[in-house]
Specification:
Layout: H1 10-46, H2 55-78, H3 85-96, H4 98-104, H5 111-120, H6 122-132, H7 138-166, H8 168-192, E1 196-198, E2 202-206, H9 207-228, H10 234-262, H11 277-295
Antiparallel strand pairs: 1-2
Helix pairs in contact: 1-2, 2-3, 2-7, 2-10, 3-6, 3-7, 6-7, 7-8, 7-11, 8-9, 8-10, 8-11, 9-10, 10-11
């Protein structure tokens, strides 16, 4: 009987398998792309071609930041608050690329310079508000633009700073720990997740999944540190892995907070089964500062 298809329990399983295949396929392609970029970056530095040091990474980060900024702008607009796109995107790019362009000016790393740049990006933001919108919704629009600049610009800048200060291997450690902890949370949560972590914010996350994320972070951190010879002891590597896994999962929840406020599931549709660029970057944006503080 045709009506029996309604009770077909195999249909959801087929859909889940198809979704899993897409996730694995596109996830594998993303990994290949990232590995290729890092290998090119490492090769150029190993050949002492310092003029283009970290340039391959910058070439990838700039379009990622641009797409993520558009997604965040759309997300905030759905939530009832606009973003100043011209000054905001300029400020985010300026801040995100600072570890690269500041060194090209021949200047040593300076924390006060970072504060100065962060303060200076406020000028065009307020100016754009005055020119385009006058006083209309100024508090929310300026506030959300500053959030976008700091949220995206700072996170990506620190990722670039880790690469510039400690080399490609340290960046590999950051990426591997955070992304593998995401994978651990997904598979453990899907398999045995029973106790919801924060059901009102992210119904799919569970305490079991968080445990899987922490375990994966610790194991991968110890493995990468050992293989790449990064000079950490096992204990410090374990702490590094656990801290980054926890920060990454919290970063994912922070983006969920913004998405729930806007009433959407994914920040975009750029990557099948992964959502938007923000959905890929969210855990890294808040884990990178934690990584930098531990490394320094």
């Amino acid at each position: 009987m045709a009506g029996m298809d309604f009770f077909d329990t195999k249909a959801p399983n087929k859909a889940m398998k198809a979704s899993m295949k897409k996730r694995i396929g596109f996830g594998g392609a993303l990994i290949v792309l990232i590995v290729a970029v890092l290998l090119v970056d490492w090769y150029l530095e190993s050949r002492h071609i310092l003029a283009v040091r970290a340039l391959p990474l910058v070439v990838v980060l700039v379009p990622l930041l641009a797409v993520a900024f558009v997604e965040l702008s759309d997300l905030t607009a759905r939530g009832g608050a606009g973003v100043l796109t011209i000054s905001g995107s300029f400020g985010a790019l300026l801040l995100a690329g600072m570890p690269f362009w500041w060194q090209r000016l021949g200047r040593p790393a300076d924390a006060y310079a970072v504060l100065a740049v962060l303060g200076a990006v406020q000028l065009p933001i307020f100016l754009e508000q005055m020119i385009r919108f006058h006083t209309a919704d100024a508090t929310r629009r300026v506030g959300m633009t500053l959030l976008a600049v700091v949220y995206l610009g700072t996170g990506l800048a620190i990722m670039l700073a880790i690469r510039m200060k400690w080399g490609v291997a340290a960046l590999v450690l950051l990426l591997a720990v955070v992304k593998c902890s995401d994978i651990g949370a997904y598979f453990v949560g899907s398999a045995i997740g029973r106790h919801k972590l924060i059901p009102w914010l992210s119904p799919g996350k569970s305490w079991e999944g968080l445990g899987g994320a922490l375990a994966a972070g610790v194991v991968v951190s110890i493995f990468v540190v050992t293989v790449l010879g990064l000079g950490m002891g096992v204990g410090r590597a374990a702490v590094f892995g656990a801290a980054l896994a926890a920060a990454g999962q919290f970063g994912d929840l922070c983006e969920s907070l913004l998405k729930r406020s806007a009433g959407i599931k994914d920040s975009g549709a750029l990557v099948p089964e992964f959502g938007g660029t923000l959905d890929i970057l969210d855990s890294l944006l808040l884990a990178a500062p934690v990584a930098y503080l531990i490394l320094v």
